[in-house]
Each structure stands twice: as C-alpha cells, then as structure tokens.
Amino acid sequence: MSPILVPQSQWLPSKTFAGQVALVTGGGTGLGLEISRGLAALGAHVAIASRNQAHHQAFLEEAQAQGWSVESLALDVREASACRDLIDGLVERHGKLDHLVNNAAGNFVCPSHRLSANAWRAVLSIVLDGTFYCSKHAGIHMLRQGFGTQLNIVATYAWTGMPGVVHSASAKAGVLTMTKTLAAEWAPYGIRVNAVAPGPFASEGAKGNLWPDDETEERIRRNVPMGRFATTQEVAAQCLWLMSPACAYVTGDCLTIDGGLSLGAGRLFADGQRPGKRDEPR
Ligand code: HXC
Ligand code: NAP
Q1: Using CA positions, which residue lies closest to atom 41 of ligand 1?
Q2: Which residues contact 132 (CB under 8 A, 6 or more apart)?
Q3: pLDDT at residue 9 in the model
Q4: Mutational test site, ligand 2, from 25, 50, 60, 209, max ligand atoms within 8 Å of CB
Q5: Ligand 2 binding pocket includes 104 (Cβ within 6 Å)
Q6: What would the pLDDT profile of 36-93 be if each residue is shown by its tens digit?
C-alpha cells in the first residue's frame, strides 16, 4: 500500500498545540524535522536543538515562509549541564515547556567484537545519556508546572536485539525502560511519557550509517512485510498523536510503526509472500 500524504496541518485538529512550547532534539533533520514541522503547523512554538546549527537552516526558512514560531539552539545532548542550561533558558523565555521529543541519536553498523570502547560510548552517550539528561531537566519543570509530555524514539530491536547494532539496541532498550519508569514516576504529576518504535525510514543519517548502498537498502526493504519503508510523515503523525490530548490516558507505552517488520522477524516456516498453486484458497 502506498503512503497517504496528508499535510501536517491536517494530522490533528488545527491548533491542537496552539500556545504550547515544544523542544525537539535533532529537530533539523529526518524524523525530528518532520515532527517539528507538524508541531509548528499545529500551533506550537518549536525549539530545535542539535550539535550543528547548519542542519537547522531548512526548517528556519520553511518556518519563516509558513509564519511558524520556531527557534534554533545549539546542543550536544551528551553534556548534562548543556541540556540543563538549554532547557532552563527555554522555560525562562517562554514560561513553560509542554513537550519534549528525545529524537537525537547516533548509529552505525559494526560487529560487536570489533566495536571499540569509544565507539560503544559514542552511541550510548547520545542515545541513553542524552535522553536521560533532557528528560530529567524537562521533567523538573514539568513537575513544577503539573503537566507535560515526553516522547522517546526507540526501535523494535530494543526488545528483539539486532546483529550489528549492539550499541544502539542496548541504548534503545535502556530508553524504553526509562520511558516506562519515568511514566510511572511522573503520572501523578500530570506528565505523560511514551515512545514510538519505527521500522526503517529514509533519513540522511540512516542512509549514511546503516544502508549506504542501494543493494543493502533493497535487501532491508524486501524484509518489510508491507514492502516499503515508512515515510517520515507517517511516523511523525503518530508521534504527534501520542503527544496530543487524544492520548491523555496513555502513558508508558510504545507504539510500533514498522509495516509488520518485527512480526515477521525470522520467518522460520514460510515467507507468505509468493502466491502459487498450493496457496489457492480452499
Ligand atoms: C565502527 C565507528 C564507526 C563505524 C564511528 N566509529 N563510526 N566504529 N564503525 N561505522 C567509532 C570511531 O572510530 C570512534 O571510535 C567512535 O566511534 C567515535 O567516533 P566519532 O566519529 O568521534 O564520533 P562522533 O563524532 O561523536 O559521532 C557520533 C556517531 C555518528 C554516532 C559515530 O555516526 C553520528 O554523529 N551520527 C548521527 C546521525 C545518525 O547516526 N543517524 C542515524 C539514526 S538511525 P575510536 O575507538 O576509533 O576512537 C537509528 C535507528 C535505525 O538510530 C533503526 C533502523 C531500523
Ligand atoms: P538523523 O536525521 O540522522 O537524526 C539524528 C539527529 O540527531 C540529527 O539531527 C543530529 O543533528 C542529532 N544528533 C546526533 N547526535 C547529537 C548530539 N550528540 N546532540 C544533539 N543532537 C544530536 O536520523 P533519523 O533517522 O531521522 O533518526 C531520528 C530518530 O529515529 C533517532 O532516534 C533514530 O534512532 C530513530 N529511528 C530511526 C530509524 C530509521 O530507519 N531512520 C528507525 C528507527 C528509529 P546534528 O548532527 O546537528 O547534531
């Protein structure tokens, strides 16, 4: 089934996030960019934060053309004090923080026995440490406010495991457990914490680090029961839905958006894909 493209402004009722303030880490590229677009199109003030502000330029230009309220901030999520200062500053300027999206990540394919300690740390510190630092400091303000949502981006290999990405799979498993833990700790204070687990979708970071050539990309695509990657729009729309009042009673959950990929993992007995004589209905 081909993806259905719906403009961001129609993903949810217009102005769903009007008057609200959101922070999206890694919001200048890939999925983070699409989430940022959606939030801004539905009325939020959106701050995007990452290491390289050149990555923010396209969003800033689009925001100007669309009349969205946005800002670009430099942040390396591996630095706890930088996360604290950035979030404190955001709240000081805007009076509150309604939404945090922990989207920033790093990844590459490397067999575990060849992964250096530094390479392990590079991914763990972005994905696991960075998510905790931002969650904690946003949480401090949200606890005071008595409301807020946090959304974490994981991957289905957080629970299936995946050869070649032990660093990312271990970090995402930690983030998934963090999601449930913080959701339980903070539910009495009006804070919801959820996650999404997308299957593969195209982004420069993923293409460069995970499927650098067309052959690898095609092999991965063939493994997806739906036969295609997700679009960033399809994933971002579900992210916004989880953050919206439509999910006011949902916390600590993880929504899988993977075209059936994790269900088909292994395909031990049948690939189920090739109709033939013996597959006629009986
Ligand atoms: C082996 C590698 C490596 C590779 C880096 N390293 N790339 N080892 N294979 N391909 C090692 C380096 O040699 C070094 O170890 C250590 O990792 C740190 O490398 P740096 O280049 O100094 O790291 P840094 O500049 O901090 O960059 C972080 C990064 C990079 C994670 C390595 O890839 C990055 O910035 N990525 C951001 C974008 C991204 O990855 N997006 C993909 C998201 S997709 P030594 O020992 O030599 O010092 C995703 C989920 C996909 O996350 C799920 C699909 C289903
Ligand atoms: P992407 O475009 O490479 O996004 C990664 C973002 O993280 C970039 O904007 C990058 O910006 C930022 N970032 C990296 N290190 C950072 C750091 N230390 N501090 C602050 N920001 C940092 O990749 P993507 O595919 O859209 O990934 C988005 C999310 O989806 C990630 O959590 C990823 O794990 C998850 N995901 C992706 C896939 C997929 O198939 N693509 C599947 C499942 C889950 P700077 O370079 O400017 O810092």
Answers
A1: 205
A2: 178
A3: 85
A4: 50
A5: yes
A6: 999 999 999 999 999 999 999 999 999 999 999 999 999 999 999 999 999 999 999 9
Residue ranges for the chain with pLDDT beneath 70:
4, 265-279, 281-282
Amino acid occupying residue 162:
M
Number of helices (H) and strands (E), helices first, in the chain? 10, 7
Residues with CB under 6 A from ligand 1: 105-108, 110, 116, 118-119, 122-123, 155, 168, 199-200, 205-206, 209-210
Give this prediction's pTM.
0.96
Residue showing tokens 């430099």: 74
Q: Which two tokens stand for residue 137?
A: 């400091």
Cα gap 35→240, rounded to integer Å: 7
Six-digit token pair at 168? 């990312």
Q: Is 16-263 assigned to CATH 3.40.50.720?
A: yes
